[in-house]
Amino acid sequence: MKESIAILTGGGPAPGMNTVVGSVAKVFLRNGYRVIGLHGGYGSLFSATPRTVEIDFPLADNIFNKGGSTVIMSRYKPSAEDFEKRFNLDFFKQNNVKLLVTVGGDDTASTANRVAKFLEDKKYPIANVHVPKTIDNDLPLPNGTPTFGYESAREGGAHIATAVYEDAHTSENWFVLAAMGRSAGHLAFGIGASCHFPMIVIPEMFNKTTITCDKIVNLVISAIVKRKIMGENYGAAIISEGVFHELSFEEIKKSGVYFSYDEHGHPELGKISKAHVFCEMIDTRLAELKVKVKSRPVEIGYEVRCDVPVAYDRQYCTLLGTGVYDLYKAGHTGCMVYVDNTGKVSPLFLKDLQDPTTGKIPPRTVDVNSQYVQTILNHVCQYITPADYEAAKKFLPNPAEFDFKKILNW
Q1: If exposure means fewest CB atoms within 10 Å of the residue's CB, which of 54, 226, 269, 303 is most exposed?
Q2: SS3 string of the chain?
Q3: What would the pLDDT profile of 59-73 be if each residue is shown by its tens digit?
Q4: pTM > 0.85: yes or no
């Protein structure tokens, strides 16, 4: 029987999913392998009747430059009981599967590590190579290498944000944007920096103080008042949804939002409009201060996850996909594929990246002390400083309360 590989995709979509799957398929097909797509993420490995799709060259060639994922994704997270009682080894035996390729983010990577350990412990002769993706850019790849999907999502987000900023100028109001980023603020910061937004708020900025609703609101109002001092009655602020993950239970209640939680214990932020929540809190505070500003909420997240990948990601994902073949032929397993900026492929072993206590892959957060971040905050963003206190008294009873660096305790 012809040797096969199986591919599954986990978590949420990111631009480049199809490019990776198509590239993996093409390189293995040309080397004589059969390629099987497993629908439903990790759930397919624990099903007696997994849904599959045969990936031949015409299909691979048709999908490689498209958004979305032809191999249906899932956030299924297997339990210990799943591994002990339901792992479908027969599927691998009956189809002569020699390699399992997993494509996903931090949770998918952590589960890939569990799968690799399980296969090793049970002495099952199946290799596993993981391809890291996320628009959040929060997987710990070396030398600041982005996760695939991030650059495309930032481009799509910047397109939306640019139009929104022009609307703000045209109608003389303020827009409050919320961007995806569960564990890190890379996407919000990348979009805000690209569009010269007066205010960017990400969780990493609160490295010297506790995040509260009041501090988030005051940072945005700091930019609003600074712009008024400059004679500008419009603007936009972008806030990473990740700030919610750092809020205490009391602060979450204060925001007026009720959260349900997914199977990984994460608040299901996709069920609410974070931008609307931020906007409501900001409007309430502005009304108390008697500062007249019209604000509008805008979400950026699901709108960019299935964007057509930009050229950078198509090229990058092609190298990641073909890199899977290189690592497999070199005998590597239980690893992530890594491609540096010269195109060199090497393995990142999941066991070396995981937290020794939790077993999870820790997120890569934004380095707020980097020259890049400090340049944007110091030279692009606009906010109240001590030099503005006198002018700000026209709008604020206590300007120091809205001093950007005082709020952050910098």
Answers
A1: 54
A2: CCCEEEEEEECCCCCCHHHHHHHHHHHHHCCCCEEEEECCHHHHHHCCCCCEEECCHHHHHHHCCCCCCCCCCECCCCCHHHHHHCCCHHHHHHCCEEEEEEEECHHHHHHHHHHHHHHHHCCCCCEEEEEEECCCCCCCCHHHCCCECHHHHHHHHHHHHHHHHHHHHHHCCEEEEEECCCCCCHHHHHHHHHCCCCEEECHHHHCCCCCCHHHHHHHHHHHHHHHHHCCCCCEEEEEECCHHHHCCHHHHHHHCCCCCECCCCCECHHHCCHHHHHHHHHHHHHHHHCCCCCEEEEEECHHHHCCCCCHHHHHHHHHHHHHHHHHHHCCCCCEEEEECCCCCEEEEEHHHHCCCCCCCCCCCCCCCCCHHHHHHHHHCCCCECHHHHHHHCCCCCCHHHHEHHHHHCC
A3: 999 999 999 999 999
A4: yes
